[in-house]
Specification:
Two copies of one chain form a homodimer. The first copy, chain A, is an alpha/beta fold. Chain A has two domains: 170 residues, 3-Layer(aba) Sandwich (Rossmann fold); 134 residues, Rossmann fold (3-Layer(aba) Sandwich), CATH 3.40.50.1400. Chain A is built from eleven helices and nine strands. In chain A, strands 2-1-3-4-9 form a five-stranded parallel beta sheet, sandwiched between helices. In chain A, helix 5 links the parallel strand 3 and strand 4. The two termini of chain A are 29 Å apart. In chain A, 55% of the residues are buried. At the A-B interface, helix 3, helix 6, helix 10, strand 8 and helix 11 of A face helix 3, helix 6, helix 10, strand 8 and helix 11 of B.
C-alpha cells in the first residue's frame, strides 16, 4: 500500500529575497485578513511592502531565512521511518505561504499516486487561522488536480501523549536549568490571535490551555509555577492575553526566573529564534528577570515523532467516520473529545 | 565588562549556489587535504567541481541549503542569555568553510571591542581536522586584525556534565521509542576520520569513546546495548571503524531495533539530516532492522547550553594558565585531564 502523509505548516522565507513575497502570501490569506478579495490584495501588497525591510532585518539575525523547511523535512523523514511497516510511506511538507506550497505539494503527491492520504497539520492545536486555512487550500488544490485517493484528516492533537511527553521532557530540563536562580515560572507561550477570532468560535486558545495542563499533569510537582500566555501580537485589534511580554514584566517584578515554552510551534520559526530568543530575552533582562531559559520546540524529539506516527496509524485504521460532502474522512485525535471537526461545518 | 564568545563550527552552504564554493573552501583546508599548497588548490578545485552536483542533490533534500547557521545562531542567543550577569556578553558564530567565516567574524568581534574573548569550539571532541583547523584560522586572522583582548580557549569537553545530561536525556527518549520492536541497540555515530590522522596523535576517537561511556554511565541500566561507530566516509584512505553502515547491517542480521545518536555534532548538518535520516534509514530498512530511531542533536537543549555557559565561566574565571607564546590563555574542560592542549604544541 502506498501512503502519502501531508504535513501542513506555515512555511517561511528561504532568504532575503523571499521575505516580501512570503509576507504578501501571508497577508493575502482570507483566514488572516478578513476583508473582501480586492481590498485584501491591495492591503497585502501595501502591508508586505511596508513590513518587508523590518522583516528582512529580523531574518538577518538568523542567517537571512527561516530554518522551517529543513526542520520540517527532518520531521517528514523521521515519520516515514516510523511508518515503514505500513508499506511505501512518504511524507510531504505542504506549506501555506512559502515553497513547497499547496499546488506544488499536491502535484508531487499526485505523482506518487498514493492509495491513502493522511492530512496531518503540524499545528497541535486547531485554529481557523492555521489548520483550517491549510486544509481549505489543500481541498481546493486537491479537487483541481483530481486527487482521488481516500483522505483522512487529523484535525488537532493538543493532548496527544507523545507530544505531551516530548514537551514535558524539554520543560523539565528547562526548569532544572533555571532553578539555580529561584523558583522558576514556566511561561507556556503560544502565538496569539485577535480576540474576535476566538469569540467567533476558534478553539485554539482552549486547546492551548489543554496542552499546558496536560504537560503539567505529566510533570507533577516539579517545583515551578506556570502560566499560559500569548506572543507575537501585530496589528490594531485586541488580542487574547495575557501577553508573554506582560508575563515577563511580572516575573521581573516578582524576581523569579522564567522558562519559556513554545507549545504551539513544533519547529523553530522566527517567532522562536528571534522573538523569544532575542527580543523577549532582552525584555526579560531589562525587566530584571534573574534567568531566562527558552525550551526548544519538540521538533524531531522521538516521543513527538512517535506521537505523530500513532495519529497517522489511527487515521489509517479507521475506515468509518462521519461521511462528509467531499468523501473525505476525518478522525479526531484518540482520547480527544472536544474536537471542533466533530461539529458540522464549524471547523473548516 | 564586554565579553565576546567565539563559537566555532564548520559552516554549511546556505543555498544551491553556495555548494561548490563551500566544497572548495573545505577541500582547500590543509587540515583536510594534507598535501602541499599548489597541489591542494588544484585538488580542491577538481574535487569540489566533481562533487558539487551530487552535493547539491543532497542539500536539495533538506530544502537546498544547510540549517547550520540558524541552529548555531539559536545557540549563540541562548548562551548570551545564560551569561548576562557577567556584563555585556555577545556570542559570535565563526564558521570555517562558509559565512560568517573567520575574517568576517574577527572583524565583527573587533568592532564589538571586547575586554575578554572566549574561544569555544562547537566540537565537544578535539580533532586536528576540526578544532585545530578552526583555531589556527582564528589565530591567523586575529593576529592580522590586531585583536589584542585576552583570549581563553576551551579546547574540548567530551564529558562535560551538561552536554552529557542533554545527550543522555535524548538517548533515553530514543530508546523508549524503539523498545516496542525489541531490545534496542544504541549506535553512537560520530563523523569518521582517516585512520592515519588518529595514528598521528589525533585524540578525537578516544574522546568520542569517552563521550559515549559518560552518557551510558548516566543512563545506567537502560535495557539497551550500545556501540560506538563512525559515519560519512569519503575518499580512498582507510577510516577508523566500525562504520555505522556495518553496524546497521549487523543490527539487521541480529533483528534488533537501533537508536542512532549523533554524539559529535551539536547541531543539525547534512550528515544528520540526509545521511542519518535518509540514507542510513534506507540502509536499515534494506537490512531488515525492525526500527530505526534517530535522536536529535543537543542543539539548544537547556542542559547543553548550561554546559557551554559553565565552560565559558570557568575559562573567564581562570586568570592563570600556562603562558603561551602569543599570550593567549587556554583552559581545559573542568574535570578533564587528558586534554591535548596541555601538551606542548601538539594540539594546535
Amino acid at each position: 500500500m502506498r501512503i502519502a502523509i501531508a504535513l501542513f505548516n506555515l512555511g517561511g522565507p528561504d532568504g532575503p529575497d523571499a521575505v516580501e513575497p512570503f509576507l504578501f502570501n501571508l497577508f493575502s490569506d482570507p483566514a488572516i485578513i478578513r476583508v473582501p478579495g480586492f481590498l485584501r490584495r491591495f492591503l497585502a501588497r501595501t502591508i508586505s511592502r511596508r513590513r518587508a525591510p523590518k522583516a528582512r532585518g529580523i531574518y538577518a539575525r538568523i542567517g537571512g531565512g527561516s530554518p522551517l523547511l529543513p526542520n520540517t523535512l527532518a520531521q517528514t523523514h523521521a515519520l516515514e521511518e516510523r511508518l515503514r511497516d505500513l508499506g511505501e510511506v512518504r511524507a510531504f511538507p505542504v506549506m501555506r505561504y512559502w515553497h513547497p506550497m499547496t499546488p506544488e505539494a499536491v502535484r508531487d503527491i499526485a505523482q506518487f499516486a498514493p492509495d491513502r492520504i493522511v492530512l496531518l497539520p503540524l499545528y497541535p492545536q486547531f485554529s481557523t487561522t492555521t489548520t483550517a486555512s491549510s486544509l481549505d487550500a489543500w481541498r481546493e488544490e486537491a479537487a483541481r488536480a483530481g486527487l482521488a485517493a481516500p483522505m483522512r484528516t487529523l484535525c488537532c492533537y493538543p493532548v496527544q501523549p507523545g507530544f505531551i511527553e516530548a514537551l514535558a521532557a524539554l520543560v523539565r530540563d528547562g526548569v532544572e536549568a533555571a532553578r539555580a536562580k529561584g523558583r522558576p515560572r514556566i511561561l507556556f507561550s503560544a502565538h496569539g490571535l485577535p480576540e474576535k477570532v476566538v469569540k467567533a468560535g476558534d478553539p485554539y486558545q482552549w486547546q492551548v490551555e489543554q496542552t499546558a495542563a496536560a504537560a503539567m499533569r505529566v510533570l507533577g510537582d516539579i517545583g515551578a509555577d506556570h502560566v499560559v500566555c500569548y506572543q507575537s501580537r501585530v496589528g490594531p485589534l485586541k488580542w487574547i492575553g495575557p501577553s508573554t511580554e506582560d508575563e515577563i514584566a511580572r516575573a521581573g517584578k516578582d524576581g523569579v526566573p522564567v522558562v519559556v515554552v513554545p507549545l504551539a510551534f513544533v519547529s523553530e520559526h522566527s517567532e522562536t529564534l528571534v522573538e523569544l530568543d532575542i527580543e523577549y530575552a532582552e525584555l526579560a533582562h531589562e525587566a530584571g528577570v534573574p534567568a531566562y531559559v527558552r525550551v526548544p520546540t519538540v521538533s524531531t524529539h522521538p516521543a513527538f515523532i512517535d506521537g505523530l506516527a500513532t495519529l497517522a496509524r489511527a487515521a489509517l485504521a479507521r475506515d468509518t467516520a462521519d461521511p462528509l460532502p467531499d468523501g473525505e474522512r476525518r478522525i479526531c485525535a484518540p482520547g480527544w473529545s472536544g474536537c471542533p471537526c466533530r461539529g458540522p461545518g464549524k471547523a473548516a
